[in-house]
Design brief:
single chain, 405 residues, alpha+beta, MutS, DNA mismatch repair protein, domain I, DNA polymerase, domain 1, Dna Ligase, domain 1, 3 domains, five-stranded mixed beta sheet, four-stranded antiparallel beta sheet, globular
C-alpha cells in the first residue's frame, strides 16, 4: 500500500470542551459563538442543538429563531487552543507526519510507523481511546489509503465514529450513488452547476467525465479523479512561512461612522498582528486594511513596504490606507501584513543595523498607546498582556466604541 492515512475529527469540539468542564450542560442545546443580541455567527454547537437545524457559520439571530431555548456562550479560544495542543501531543506519537486543518482536525500519515494496514487500524483505535481517557473528549476517526477517503471515513459514523476504507474500490462502492457534494472541493455552487447539467451523483460524474473536464477545466479533472477514488496528495505539515498573511479583524456590535475610532482600533489590531508575527518568526513586506460596510460590501487597501512586523509601522501605514477609503458606516475593520518572509528570507534593513531605529518605533508606539489610554480612561500600556488574552480585546474595543470621547 502506497500510504496509510488517519483522519481525526473532534466531535463538536468547542461545545464538547465546555460540556466536559461543566457537566450540567450535557444533553442540552449548546451554541458557542456570539450571543443572540449580538452580531455574529455560530462557531460550533452541540449535537442537541444541531437537531434544530443549527450549524457552524449560521447567523446567530437565525440560530436563536430556530432554538430560543438554547444555551448561548462566547467561546474560550485560549482554552480550546490549549486542549488542542494536548490532543496534538497524543496524535503525533503515532504519525510520521501530521497536517492540522484546524484546532480539532488532523491528517496523520502513519505509513512507515505502522508498517501495515492492521497496525494502522490499531493506531486509530488507540487514538480514540486515549483522546477519551486523557482528555474526556470523543473524536471520529477514519483510516484510508488517501486523504479524501480518510476524511470521508471519519464522517461516516459521526459522532464518536470509526470507519475504514482500505482501497479505491472500497471508496467508490461507498460513494458511487451519493450526491456529488460528497466529493472533496464540490461545494454548493459547483454542485448547483453540475445539477443544472443533470449530474447529481458520483455515478453521473463517472459517466460524464469528459464533459465535466471540458466545462470545469482543472477543477473538473480533479472532480472526476476523485469520483474514481484517485487522490495522491501527501500529508503536508503546516509551516508558518506557508501562510499568505497575518491579520486581525473586529466586528462591531453597532456600525461605526467615526473614523477616528477606527484609527484607534487599528492601533490595537496592529499590536495583535505584531505579536502573532513574532510568535512564528515572520515579517511582512506589505500592509493591508480591510473594511466591511453596513451594506456588507467589503473592501481592502494595501501597499508594499520594507519588511517589518513593527506594530508602530503597521499602525502608521494602515492609518494612511484608512484615509484613502470612502467614509460611510463600518461594520468590520481589520489590519494585517502580507508577503510574509522568515528571518533568513528578508532583506537587511537599516533598523537591523541601527538599533536606535527600533527604539524610535517603540517610542512612537508607547506614545500612541499612552494617548489612547488617556482618551478612553484605560491603562493600555500596563495591561497589554491581559487585553490580548482571549475575548478581552473584543470587549475593550466595544468599550471604546461606547465611550468614544
Amino acid at each position: 500500500m502506497d500510504q496509510i492515512i488517519i483522519h481525526v475529527d473532534m466531535d463538536a469540539f468547542f461545545a464538547s470542551v465546555e460540556i466536559r468542564d461543566n457537566p450540567s450542560l450535557r444533553g442540552k442545546p449548546l451554541i458557542i459563538g456570539s450571543l443572540p443580541q449580538e452580531r455574529g455567527v455560530v462557531a460550533t454547537c452541540s449535537y442537541e442543538a444541531r437537531k434544530f437545524g443549527i450549524h457552524s457559520a449560521m447567523n446567530i439571530k437565525e440560530a436563536y429563531r430556530l432554538c430560543p431555548q438554547g444555551i448561548y456562550m462566547h467561546g474560550s479560544y485560549e482554552k480550546y487552543r490549549a486542549v488542542s495542543n494536548q490532543l496534538h501531543d497524543i496524535w503525533n506519537e503515532y504519525a510520521d507526519a501530521s497536517e492540522y486543518v484546524a484546532l480539532d482536525e488532523a491528517y496523520l500519515d502513519v505509513t512507515e510507523r505502522a508498517g501495515s494496514w492492521e497496525r494502522a487500524c490499531e493506531f486509530a483505535r488507540e487514538i480514540k481511546r486515549r483522546t477519551l481517557e486523557e482528555q474526556g473528549l470523543t473524536c471520529s476517526v477514519g483510516v484510508a489509503y488517501s486523504k479524501t477517503a480518510a476524511k470521508t471515513a471519519s464522517e461516516e459514523k459521526k459522532p464518536d465514529g470509526y470507519f475504514e476504507i482500505p482501497t479505491a474500490e472500497d471508496y467508490i462502492r461507498l460513494i458511487q450513488d451519493r450526491d456529488v457534494r460528497v466529493l472533496y472541493t464540490v461545494g454548493a455552487k459547483t454542485a448547483e452547476k453540475l445539477n443544472r447539467a443533470g449530474i447529481r451523483t458520483v455515478r453521473d460524474v463517472q459517466a460524464r467525465q469528459e464533459e465535466i473536464i471540458r466545462s470545469f477545466g482543472k477543477q473538473g479533472l480533479w472532480i472526476t479523479q476523485l469520483a474514481f477514488g484517485k487522490d495522491d496528495r501527501r500529508v503536508s505539515p503546516y509551516r508558518p512561512e506557508d501562510a499568505k498573511s497575518i491579520s486581525r479583524e473586529i466586528t462591531f456590535q453597532e456600525d461605526v461612522t467615526d473614523f477616528g475610532l477606527l484609527t484607534d482600533v487599528i492601533l490595537l489590531l496592529a499590536i495583535s498582528v505584531e505579536r502573532r508575527a513574532s510568535r512564528v518568526g515572520l515579517y511582512g513586506e506589505g500592509v493591508t486594511v480591510k473594511l466591511t460596510y453596513s451594506d456588507m460590501k467589503s473592501i481592502t487597501r494595501s501597499r508594499l513596504i520594507p519588511s517589518t512586523r513593527s506594530a508602530a509601522v503597521i499602525y502608521e501605514e494602515a492609518g494612511r490606507l484608512l484615509g484613502q477609503v470612502q467614509q460611510k458606516p463600518v461594520r468590520l475593520v481589520g489590519a494585517g501584513i502580507y508577503h510574509l518572509t522568515g528571518e533568513y528570507g528578508r532583506q537587511i534593513r537599516i533598523e537591523d543595523l541601527m538599533p536606535e531605529v527600533q527604539e524610535q518605533q517603540q517610542v512612537r508606539l508607547d506614545a500612541a498607546l499612552k494617548d489612547l489610554g488617556r482618551r478612553y480612561g484605560l491603562d493600555f500600556a500596563g495591561n497589554l498582556d491581559r487585553i490580548f488574552h482571549g475575548e478581552t480585546l473584543y470587549k475593550t474595543i466595544e468599550y471604546m466604541r461606547k465611550h468614544r470621547p
